[in-house]
Amino acid sequence: MDCSIYVHIPFCESKCFYCAFASFSNIENEQKKYFENLEKEIKRDKHTANIKSIYIGGGTPSFVDCNYIKKILDLLMKKYDVDKNAEITIEVNPNSINESKLTFYKKIGINRLSIGVQSLNNLQLKRIGRLHNKKQAINCIKLAKKVGFKNISCDLLLGLEKENFWLLKKSLRPLMKNVTHLSCYMLQVEDNTKLKDLIEKKQIILPNEDEVVNDYQRVIKYLNKHGFKQYEISNFAKEGFECKHNLNYWARGNYLGFGLAAHSFVGNKRWANAKTFDNYYKGIKELEEVLTKQQIIEEIIMLGLRCDLGVDLDKLKKLGYDIQKNPNFNYLLENNILVKNKNIINLLPKYYGVSNMIIEKLLN
Ligand SMILES: C[S@@+](CC[C@H](N)C(=O)[O-])C[C@H]1O[C@@H](n2cnc3c(N)ncnc32)[C@H](O)[C@@H]1O
Ligand code: SF4
User: Fold this and answer.
1) Tens digits of per-residue pLDDT, 296-333?
2) Is residue 93 within 6 Å of ligand 1 at its C-beta?
3) Closest CA to 110 of 73, 64, 61, 80
4) Ligand with smallest separation from the Cα of 94
5) Which CATH architecture has domain 2-249?
6) CATH T-level assignment (fold) for domain 292-364
């Protein structure tokens, strides 16, 4: 089967104030045991797969010893049939990277970097607990290019404050000139994070939602105008640099996830590893489910309408749902909110921001 692989590295140098991902700091002595168990988990896997993409994410993969990454990648290459053109990504943070690590990654076959820039405003970075500054972020991109990476993505966060668009453009320019892909996320205030605590204590005041949406619309226009096409709600790429790994998620392709809290999806079966080290080591699953027909229909619509893959009407029909009979469908089509090309419908990107509302209408 064609498949992608996700490997989770749950270690970080420190925990950012907004982050609710399965990632932990100050537990460096756990790393050896974790990687031993990760290897065991991969060795135990029974799937035969032709691998189109590998994504080493976290946490902060660049924070751990490079040799751990090499060992895992070597094992995956040996065990599975990995395409020679497979997209192999690693997430790196500007404060835990240097030229020799980047050279090492390149040498072991990694061909795409996802750099956690988040912001190029030093005050904003400090306010959210990031350990790097603007200079380190720019330097990381420069080094990545120097060692020969051609496919570089940066993560950005919007909504940290009401943006001065002139300053934001000034920040975006050096990124657009040097990278091929940008993921721009609107900051979410998650439960059990330091950010939530700071907001409750009124020590951080975030802009209101309308202000953030307004900033986001301007960013989208600006990026589109400069050759970064929005191909999913939060993702922008130069032509040909769309992330294959994420496209496979949105197309509901197969993926195997290894490591703490990692999710897998094969056929219509989904499972997820435990979120604590002890339970992960014991092989306990946090989730195991076979999707129902209704869940599959909902996923096809939800994932397809949020990116430029769109929704295949025939696929839905085969599952027993003729979306064209939905009373809202024609209204959305006639008002150019949805566009139909042969059997594929797409949501116009300018409506991505309200996609939840539209999707709900199509599921009624
Ligand atoms: C799983 S994190 C790992 C990346 C890497 N460790 C880093 O921090 O740069 C992937 C991305 O999710 C985004 N993210 C994390 N928490 C978020 C939140 N509360 N709201 C919006 N985006 C968030 C950040 O942009 C981050 O780069
Ligand atoms: S945002 Fe990245 S570096 Fe920060 S705590 Fe989360 S995973 Fe770690």
Assistant:
1) 999 999 999 999 999 999 999 999 999 998 989 999 99
2) yes
3) 73
4) 1
5) Alpha-Beta Barrel (3.20)
6) Arc Repressor Mutant, subunit A (1.10.10)
What predicted TM-score, i.e. pTM, was given to this entire model? 0.95
* Residue ranges of E strands in 93-239: 112-118, 152-158, 181-186, 229-232, 235-237
Mean of the per-residue pLDDT values for the chain? 94
Which ligand 2 atom sits nearest the alpha carbon of residue 93?
A: 3
Which neighbouring-strand residues pair with 3? 51
Secondary element (H or E) of residue 359: helix 355-363
Q: How far, CA to CA in Å, does 339 sit from each of 50, 300, 304, 352?
A: 34, 16, 13, 13
Show Cβ contacts of residue 336 under 8 Å, excluding neighbours closer than 6 positions.
348
Domain boundaries, the chain: 2-249, 292-364
- Give the amino acid at 102: L
- Best of 12, 13, 14, 21 to mutate for ligand 1, by most ligand atoms within 8 A of CB? 21
